[in-house]
Amino acid sequence: NITVSFPYYQLTVVSGCSGSGKSSLVYDTIFAESQRQLYENFIDNTFGLKMMKRPDVDSIEKLCPAVSVAQNSYNFNPNSTVGTYTDLSDELRSIFSFIVNQENGTAFKPRDFSFSQSKFLCKKCGGTGRIWKISIDKIIPDPTQTLRSGGILYFSGTQTSYEMRRLAQICERHRIDMDTRICDLSADQYDILIKYGDDEKYTVKYERGTKKNYQKTGFFHGVLPELGEEYKRIKTPMIFQQLVRYMDEFSCDLCDGMKLGRDILDYRICGYNISEAENLEIGDLKQWCEQLSKKYSKKSAKGLESTIKHFIEEINSISSLNLDYLTLSRPIPSLSGGEFQRLRLAKQLCGSMVEVLYILDEPCKGLHFLDINKIIDISRKLVDKGNTVIAIEHNKQYISAADNIVLIGPGSGPAGGEIIHSEPKSDVPIEKHSVRHPSDAMTFNGINANTINNQDCLIPLGAITFITGVSGSGKSTLAEEVIFSSLSRKQPVHCKRIYAPRSYKVHFVDQQPIGKTSRSSVISYLKISDEIRKIFADIPPKRAKITPSHFSTNCSGGRCEKCSGSGIISLDSKVMPDAYIKCDECNGKRFKPEILEIKYKGYSIFDVLEMNVRDAIRVFDDSPKIKAMLQCMIDIGIGYLKLGQLSMNLSGGEAQRIKLAKVLGEESHKNSIIILDEPTSGLGSNDIHKIGTVIERLADQGNTIIIIDHNVEFINAHCDYCIDFGVLGGKDGGKIVDQGFFDDIVFRQKASIFAR
C-alpha cells in the first residue's frame, strides 16, 4: 500500500536490501504496466487481449514506454559477438562492400563479408577460424596414473562400465598389467592401446546404472584411430561435447583464423581486410575510423557517409565506457557481467529514442569503483537526451549522484515493501577477521589466456583469496578459464604448469541467471524437488498409477497441460518481450485437481510450493537432505522465498545467494575449492554480513575460497590473500601487479605511500 512518484527527465535510484521489493515495484509494477499497454496496442486485439494481468496497483498516471536494461537479458549464443550484438559488424560489412565495389568494380554484397552467411567462408573451418585436433595430453592427462585408475581418459569409468570392462579384456589378451602406470608401458603395449589396436573382436558384458545385462561386440583399432572416426561422424553438439575433452583448439591453418577465403580477404581498406578490422581493439578501430572518414566520407555517396558517421558514434560510445580493449569479434559469453552491462548501455546511448523510461537493473554490478563514474555519465546522458531513468542500485557512489532516491525496506520479504526515509544500519558492523597464513598452496605458472600474458599466481589452501582489479583486467579469466578449468580437468588449462598437493572437488558459482524455462523454480534448481515428489508419492493409501512424476511440472500426467505446470501462460511476440498471464485452467495451481487432493501433513503439493523456506523446514524436518538445503538458504538470508517461486521472478541478489546455497547444501564440505563470482552483487549490508559469515565458516572448516569482488569493505573484512590486477584493462591489463597475504600487501602499500 505505497504511493510513490518518479519525476520525468531525472535519474531516480531505487535502493534497499535484497528481497525488499525493489524489483516488484520497478519491474512487476511500472515496467509490467508499460509492457501490458504496449501489447494491447501492438498485438492484434481481435479477440480482446485483456487477459494480461494488470499489476496490483490502484492507478499509474503519466506512464511512458519503458526500455529495460536488465541483468537476465544475456545472450549465451557462442556465435554472438560484440559486433553482431551492437550491429557494428553489419555496418562494417556494408562499408566494406560499398568501398570495395567502388574501387575494384566488383559486385560484392554485405553478406559476402559475413562470417556466417558468406559463400567465401574458409573451406576447412567453415567460418569459425578454429579447428580441433585430438590431443594425446588430453587422452593421458597424468602419465603417472595406472590403467586401472583411469590413466587413459578414453577408458575412464566405473570398474563395471563398458570402457573399463573393454580395457580389461584388451589387457588380458595382450598380458598387460592393469596396475601398470602409463609411463611404464613398453613401446609395444603403448602402441597397441593408443596407436594401432589389434583389430580383434571383443564381446564386452557390462553394467549401466542399475541394469547389469548389457553386451556389446566390436573391434578395437586403438584410441587415436577410434577417436578420429568418431570425430568424422560428429552430427550434434552433444556428440561434440563428448569428444571435446580429448581435443585441443587451434587457429585454422588454412585461413590463419580469419574465417574467410583469400578471394575476399585480399581486399583491404586503409590497410586492413574485414577479418583484421573485426579483430582490432576498439581503441585501434577508432583510429582506423578516422582514416576512413578522411578518405571516403566526402568522396562517396551520402549513404556511405551517414553509415561511417553512425559507425564512429557507436565506437566512441563504447570507448567512453572504458571498453577500448574489446574487439568486434569478442564472443558475448566471454564478457564479464560488468562489461556486458556497459556494452548494453553504450548501445542505448547511440539510439535516437527520446521521451522513454529507461530502467537499469544494477548498472554498477561487477564494476571497480574507478568505473562507476562512467556509468553515472552515461545515465546522465540518457537523461540529457530527454529520457527518464530509474535505476535499481546499491552502489553508494552511484546513489549519491542521483536526483532522487526511493528506499524500499526496512527488511527482506514480508519485512520489506515499505517506503522508508533512511537506509537501516547493519545489525552487525563489518569487522576485520584475523588473516590466515596457511603453509600449503596451489601454484599456476605460465598463464596465457585472453589478456593475461605469462603470469604466475599462488592460491593458499584453507584460506580466503580475493581476485581484484578493474573490469576487463583478467579476473574472470584467471578464476574460471584457468583455475576452475585446470582443477576440474586435473590438468593445466591456459597455463604451462599447475601444482596442487592433492585432488580437490571444485565448485564455481557464476553470475549467469538461474533457470532457463518458465517452469524453473527454487526447488527445481536446488534439486530437492525429487525428494519432495517421492514423499508425496509414498503417502498411504497408495493410489494406483500415482508415481513421483505425477508431482512434477516437467512430466505429463499430474501437471496442468495447458500451462505445462508453470501456472502461467506465455504470450509470444515477434516484436516485444515475452509476457505471462495466469493459467485459466488450473487457476495458477499447476496441477490437476486429483493430484491436489493428495496431502502430506495436511498440505497439497501446491501448498508446499507456496510455502516459504522457514515454514517448509518445519514440515520436512524428518528429511535430512531437504532440511540441510533449506537451512543453508536461511543461513544466507533468503528464508522468506517460496519453494515454488519461479526463477525468472528472483532478483539478482536472490539468484546469486540461491546458487551459493545449492553448493553449500549439496554435501558436507571439507577440503573443497569454492570459486565465487561477485557474491555481494545486489546485496545490502546486512545480507553481505550473512554471506561473509558463511564464507568464514567454510574457510574455518578447511575449504579454499576464491572470490572475485569489488566491494572494498567486504574485501577488507574477509581477505586472507589477494591477487590484484590493478587499474588497467584490455591489452594494458592482464598483469598481476601485486599478490600476497592481505596484511603484507597493506604494509607494502603504506610503505609506498610513506616513501612518496
Secondary structure tally, helices: 26
Q: In percent terms, what proportion of residues is strand?
A: 5-15%
The count of DSSP E runs of length 2 or more, i.e. the number of strands, is: 21
Q: Give the overall silhouette.
A: globular
The biggest beta sheet, please?
6 strands, mixed
Helix content: 25-40%
Averaged pLDDT: 84
Structural class: alpha/beta
Query: What distance lies between the first and last C-alpha atoms, to the nearest angstrom?
Result: 57 Å
Question: Strands of the biggest beta sheet: in what spatial order?
Answer: 2-7-8-1-9-10
Structural features, described:
With about 750 residues, the chain is an alpha/beta fold. Helix content is about 35%, strand content about 15%. Helix 24 links the parallel strand 18 and strand 19. Helix 22 packs across helix 23. The two termini are about 55 Å apart. The mean pLDDT is about 85.
Strand-helix topology:
Layout: E1 11-15, H1 22-42, E2 66-69, H2 82-86, H3 88-104, E3 130-134, H4 136-139, H5 162-173, H6 187-196, E4 201-208, E5 211-219, H7 223-232, H8 237-243, E6 247-251, H9 262-265, H10 274-278, H11 282-296, H12 302-319, H13 337-349, E7 357-361, H14 372-384, E8 388-392, H15 396-399, E9 404-409, E10 418-420, E11 441-449, E12 452-460, E13 464-468, H16 475-489, E14 497-499, E15 506-509, H17 522-526, H18 529-537, E16 568-571, E17 579-582, H19 593-596, H20 605-610, H21 613-619, H22 624-635, H23 652-665, E18 673-677, H24 685-700, E19 704-708, H25 712-718, E20 721-724, E21 738-741, H26 742-755
Helix pairs in contact: 3-12, 11-12, 13-14, 21-22, 22-23
